[in-house]
Design a protein that fits this description.
Number of domains: 2
Helix content: 25-40%
CATH topology of the largest domain: Aminopeptidase
Largest sheet: 7 strands, mixed
Structural class: alpha+beta
Distance between the termini: 19 Å
CATH architecture of the largest domain: 3-Layer(aba) Sandwich
Length: 300
C-alpha cells in the first residue's frame, strides 16, 4: 500500500539512487529541486519498490510526478490510480517527459489526455559551447563579456559557506529591483534560493560567485543530475552591470567542467513562460529541449 510523507533532508539517502537509476536529463528528477521548492509545492514522497512516488500541490490542486526509478513502472502507476481514487482526486501527472509518453499511453490507455506544457520545458546546452562561446551565433555574448572585463575589477570564486552571507545580501538587493509586474513566481524562487543557502552543504550543491570591487555581483547554484549532465538551478546577477549575466554563466560552466570533466551537457531549466527569460535562454542556442507534458486520466 502506498504511504506518503512530507519530504525531508533524510530522504536524500534513498532518493539519490533512484534518481541515478532514472538517468534523466530533466531538472525535475533530482533531490535538490524536490527539497528546495518544497515550500511552494508542499510535496509528499514515498517509495514503491525501486521507484519514487511524489505528490505535489500548487494553487490547492494536487498532482503527481512521473514515478521515476528502475524496473517495471506499471505497479507504480496502478498504485497512483488507486491512491487518487481513494483520495477522491483526479490522477494528474505533470513533468512527464517525451521518453515517458509511450509508457503512459500504453499503461493508462486511450482514456488519458496528454497536453504539452511548453513553459516547463528545460533548455539543454553543450557545456563546451557555454565555456568557449565560439561561433558567430554567440558573438554578442563575447562582446558583453569583453566589456565587462574592461569595465570592472572582478574575480570568480567557488561558492563556499563563507561567501553565502554576501550572496544573501546580493539577492536581497536584486529582489528590490523587481517591480510588481516582474514578480510572478519570483517570491517562490527567492524562498527556494534561501533554502539552497541554508542547506548548501547537506544537499551537496555546487556554486560560483562573481565579485566586482569586492562585492558579490552574481552567483550560480546547481548540482549534478546524471553522470554527464549538470543542472544550473539558480543564476542571479545585477542587470545594471553590463555583461554580468553572461560572465557568471561562462565562469561557472568553466568551473564545473574543471571539477567534473565528464560533463557534456548543462541543463538551465525552464523559462516559466516569461518572454524575457525565454529570449535570453534561446539566445544561447540550446542543443535540445527536455519536453514535458501533462497527462490526465480522464475517467479518474
Amino acid at each position: 500500500m502506498l504511504e506518503l510523507h512530507p519530504v525531508g533532508l533524510a530522504d536524500k539517502t534513498w532518493i539519490d539512487p533512484i534518481v541515478l537509476a532514472e538517468n534523466s536529463p530533466s531538472a525535475d528528477y533530482n533531490f535538490g529541486n524536490i527539497f528546495l521548492w518544497d515550500e511552494t509545492y508542499r510535496q509528499r514522497v514515498g517509495r514503491l519498490g525501486d521507484r519514487m512516488i511524489t505528490m505535489l500541490c500548487y494553487e490547492d490542486r494536487p498532482f503527481f510526478a512521473w514515478p521515476i526509478g528502475g524496473g517495471d513502472v506499471s505497479p507504480a502507476l496502478g498504485e497512483l490510480r488507486a491512491y487518487a481514487a481513494a483520495q477522491g482526486i483526479p490522477l494528474v501527472l505533470r513533468g512527464v517527459t517525451a521518453d515517458h509518453l509511450p509508457l503512459a499511453r500504453e499503461l493508462l490507455g486511450g482514456c488519458c489526455q496528454i497536453t504539452p506544457e511548453r513553459d516547463l520545458w528545460d533548455y539543454l546546452y553543450a557545456a563546451e559551447a557555454l565555456d568557449t562561446l565560439s561561433g558567430k551565433h554567440l558573438h554578442g555574448k563575447r562582446n558583453h563579456i569583453h566589456r565587462f572585463e574592461q569595465e570592472n575589477a572582478w574575480r570568480f570564486t567557488p561558492l563556499t559557506a563563507d561567501a553565502i552571507p554576501a550572496c544573501r545580501r546580493m539577492l536581497d538587493r536584486w529582489m528590490e529591483t523587481c517591480g510588481e509586474d516582474g514578480r510572478d513566481g519570483i517570491d517562490d524562487e527567492y524562498r527556494a534560493i534561501q533554502r539552497a543557502f541554508a542547506f548548501f552543504e547537506p544537499l551537496g550543491l555546487e556554486g560560483g560567485v562573481l565579485w566586482v570591487d569586492g562585492e558579490a555581483a552574481a552567483f550560480s547554484i546547481g548540482e549534478m543530475i546524471r553522470p554527464d549532465t549538470f543542472d544550473a538551478h539558480f543564476e542571479k546577477a545585477y542587470a545594471d552591470i553590463n555583461g554580468a549575466y553572461p560572465m557568471i554563466n561562462r565562469e561557472f560552466v568553466r568551473y564545473i567542467r574543471s571539477i567534473h570533466p565528464q560533463v557534456r551537457w548543462i541543463n538551465r531549466e525552464d523559462d516559466t513562460g516569461r518572454p524575457s527569460l525565454r529570449q535570453s535562454k534561446l539566445s544561447y542556442h540550446p542543443v535540445g529541449m527536455v519536453e514535458k507534458y501533462k497527462v490526465v486520466l480522464s475517467n479518474a
